[in-house]
Amino acid sequence: MSASTESYLSHARYGKDKVRVFRVVREGSFHHVVEYNVCALLEGEIDVSYTKADNSVVVATDSIKNITYYLAKTSPHILYPERFAIHLGTHLVSKYAHIHKAFVTIEKLRWARIPVKTGVAGQEETKLHPHSFYRDGDDKRVTSVEIDATGGKDKITAKVTSGISDLLVLKSTGSAFEGFVRDEYTTLVEVNDRIFSTSIDLSYVYKPFAVPAPSDEKKLVVDLTGKHAEAGTPWDGEKVAHSARKITLETFALDESASVQATLYKMAQQIVAENPYVESVTYKLPNKHYVPVDMRYIGIDNLTPAAAEVFVPIAAPSGLISATISRK
Ligand SMILES: O=c1[nH]c(=O)c2[nH]c(=O)[nH]c2[nH]1
Fold this sequence. Notes:
Layout: E1 14-27, E2 30-44, H1 47-51, H2 61-74, H3 81-95, E3 99-108, E4 112-118, E5 125-134, E6 140-148, E7 157-171, E8 196-206, E9 209-210, H4 238-254, H5 260-274, E10 278-287, E11 290-292, E12 311-313, E13 319-326
Antiparallel strand pairs: 1-2, 2-3, 3-6, 4-5, 6-7, 7-8, 7-9, 8-10, 10-13, 11-12
Helix pairs in contact: 2-3, 4-5
Bound molecules: uric acid.
Uric acid binds near residues 177, 260, 287 and 319.
Family: Belongs to the uricase family.
Enzyme class: oxidoreductase
GO molecular function: urate oxidase activity
């Protein structure tokens, strides 16, 4: 059989990635800040730009960047990553007749208010500073929004997936790994106490929903009154983000872990149970191994779990445990 030499364009998507944007929202001297890395990609009737070198259908990626900055300045949703992503995606598909889908991903970097002591000696209190911030972690809140206008510009739908990336955690006990398959390939020793460390990658998928028609022709601001602003939906975003982070960290800390798999499942089940607008939860958890140093060369026991105190953090390889837990 000879393979066909012909080919066709089966998929095309383009846009701007790594658009870095910082926004300050001032309430007098009390400021709110956000820092985002934005990726905005488009699909639609763009095939000829690939197949016929016809750029007349191309909204320049530079313009996509400029729209991102324009909305960062004008959108009332800028402080909320889900809402801002929905707004940006809706703007893109509404503005251009031949663009039918927008894919907006936003990484939100952490800026927390600096706690400062105020008041006179003896009556000091700690307050969060109104306009000074520090980076209180390398983890990022992530949201990926798919805006679909294929059914018409007045029938836009959204699929929102949000979560956390790069949340590095470690516990020095409360983790075991026993009872696994033992055969001729097994060298791992069963332990009832070990170090458990992982860099949490969490994503949760909201129920798809219809985007209400924009109320303003130019800014395409989505009206967020009534049911659209309900807590727990992606219009809110904050409630689920807070719940998911709290459940993840508390379960990691409190669980007497039988394995990464079992701890993962407990976390995900709780997120589904506590957040009715979430359809499914996916964790990807690298098992970052810490191996006790064998000190028998100097006659010291550093290997049995109770005596193990000096460990080598192993950069690679790591385990990689993942699963999706879905609402029934
Ligand atoms: O929690 C664990 N799950 C595994 O599947 C596994 N495999 C392994 O070598 N160590 C671990 N730990």
